[in-house]
Design a protein that fits this description.
Strands 7-6-10-11-12 form a 5-stranded antiparallel beta sheet, covered by helices on one side. A 3-stranded parallel beta sheet has the order 1-2-3, with helices on one face. The chain is elongated and about 60 Å long. The chain starts with a strand and ends with a helix. It is built from 5 helices and 12 strands. β1, α1 and β2 form a beta-alpha-beta unit. It has 2 domains: 53 residues; 123 residues, no CATH class. With 189 residues, it is α+β, with helices and mostly antiparallel strands.
């Protein structure tokens, strides 16, 4: 019988460890990646399948930027919050239409700001990815949350909020209008 193999990143704890366990329970061989070999060895012991769990340590980077336009940058469980500052209005006027927001305007005051976990563009972000708004330096110099958008030549449209808790303001003005504008854009062929 052929054994299927899966690669799991972050396999030493949390969701990655749970996923590795679920795959092993289903008969998979698992190549488990994490930054620290000692933590991977602990995970291997806890999983109890050393013959099917291969630990590989090392930072493989953040490949998500090439797909969604942004990558994870930082998380502090919401201890720091900030307001988005609108930028590049001319690049996406459809998003800001009828919101009352202009270049340099801020939003997020009505929910006390955004933060928790933030994302930003990276060198691997697709060509044409634009930053729509950002929370500058939220987690220190150069560590900013960036709301982004891009379109592929095949017609896919990709929006990333840039802050984990952005969705919590979906029913508040002006975010409600921004999301209405976004849905209208995404639904166009």
């Amino acid at each position: 019988m052929d054994t299927k193999t899966a690669i799991v990143t972050g396999a030493s704890s949390g969701i990655g460890l749970a996923l590795a366990r679920a795959l092993l329970d289903r008969g998979y061989a698992v190549i488990g990646n994490a930054r620290t070999l000692s933590r991977l060895k602990e995970a291997s012991d806890a999983l109890g399948s050393p013959e099917r769990f291969v630990p590989v340590d090392g930072d493989i980077g953040r490949p998500e930027a090439s797909l969604i336009g942004v990558q994870y940058r930082a998380n502090d469980d919401g201890q720091r919050q900030g307001f988005f500052t609108v930028q590049g209005v001319a690049n996406a006027p459809w998003l800001w239409d009828a919101t009352g927001l202009a270049e340099g305007s801020t939003f997020g005051q009505f929910v006390g700001g955004y933060g928790i976990e933030i994302d930003s563009t990276a060198p691997s972000s697709p060509p044409g990815t634009i930053v729509l708004a950002q929370i500058p330096d939220l987690f220190g110099a150069g560590i900013s949350a960036q709301m982004s958008y891009y379109e592929t030549p095949a017609g896919a449209k990709v929006f990333a909020a840039g802050a984990l808790d952005f969705g919590g303001s979906a029913t508040f003005w002006p975010v409600k209008r921004m999301l209405d504008n976004l849905w209208a854009r995404l639904s166009q062929p």
